[in-house]
Design brief:
296 residues; 3 domains; Arc Repressor Mutant, subunit A; D-Maltodextrin-Binding Protein, domain 2; flat; single chain
């Protein structure tokens, strides 16, 4: 019989892209994972990993085994959820990873509501960037993720997760406050602040600007949207800002009619099979209610 622990280690190599990255994220040494995967190859009788330069990648047999592992893990999640329904009230420990602005504006109200209604439920919050949070969910380091998604960008991976849209948050373009832009050609000279280029928000911002004939002069990078807001307020940079952030800070800046507006979706993500867990359902409903109240 195949060992589930070794199967999850193989899945970790697939998720994180290398054995070294999997070892770092899962808390193992490189040699320990290598040894365990060597035993798994002996158990299966097939080659699961092949060398590519100084790294490794999964063989077709390894890829197929990971797909089957995903199905096994989803079945375990469903079994745990079914067992949890035997309890009348949500209970236990739930660890959530969420991005900065919703951690400040929505999560405290949701957690306070859960503490009042479900005293046996211990909700713990980690502030994480969306891309890292989803990887932690897939690696079973957290139980749920509150993340955002931008139109036309790559969201969370399809396999092994269940996504619920909590709501929509408008994202608007702002020019440096107090700086006059008399025509569209002048707009092309504006300096910008963006999140790191690996972030979906930055990919979206670059795409929508380029579709309108603007190649942004990106002078500043920061994952801190409050920094973006202050740079706009001080007349130092243009930025795309979610309404959630502008409203939270009570800022009086006005969006530009020359820059596009769109909406990001706020999503609640759990592992497939766990979506009906009473604890995770209670957390989801509390976040939805807090989000709606925040946007009234």
């Amino acid at each position: 019989m195949l060992d589930l622990h070794r199967l999850t280690l193989l899945r970790g190599v697939k998720l994180h892209g290398s054995m070294s990255a999997a070892a770092r994220e899962l808390g193992y040494s490189h040699s320990a994972i290598s040894q365990q995967l060597g035993v798994l190859e002996k158990e299966t009788g097939v080659v699961l990993l092949e060398k590519v330069g100084r790294s490794v990648r999964l063989t077709p047999a390894g890829e197929e085994l990971v797909r089957n592992t995903e199905a096994i893990l989803a079945a375990i999640e469903r079994a745990e959820s079914d067992l949890a329904t035997a309890h009348e009230r949500a209970h236990g420990v739930v660890t959530i990873a969420a991005f900065a602005s919703i951690s400040r504006s929505v999560m405290p109200a949701a957690m306070a509501d859960l503490a009042r209604r479900f005293p046996g439920l211990d909700v713990r919050l980690r502030r994480e960037e969306p891309e890292a949070a989803v990887m932690q969910l897939m690696s079973r380091q957290v139980d749920a993720v509150v993340t955002d998604a931008f139109p036309g960008t790559q969201g969370a991976p399809d396999g092994g997760i269940h996504t619920t849209v909590i709501g929509q948050d408008p994202v608007r373009g702002y020019l440096p406050h107090g700086v006059a832009f008399d025509d569209f050609d002048q707009l092309r000279t504006a300096r910008w602040v963006l999140e790191p280029l690996s972030a979906a928000s930055a990919q979206w911002a670059l795409r929508v600007c380029r579709e309108r004939g603007i190649e942004p002069n990106v002078a500043h990078f920061s994952s801190d949207l409050l920094f973006h807001l202050r740079m706009v307020e001080q007349g130092l940079a243009a930025a795309f800002l979610p309404d959630m952030v502008v409203r939270e800070m009570g800022s009086t800046i006005v969006p530009s009619s020359w820059l596009p507006a769109d909406q990001r979706s706020i999503q609640y993500v759990v592992r497939s099979g766990s979506e009906n867990s009473p604890a995770l359902v209670a957390v989801r409903e509390a976040i939805v209610q807090a989000f709606q109240a925040h946007n009234m």
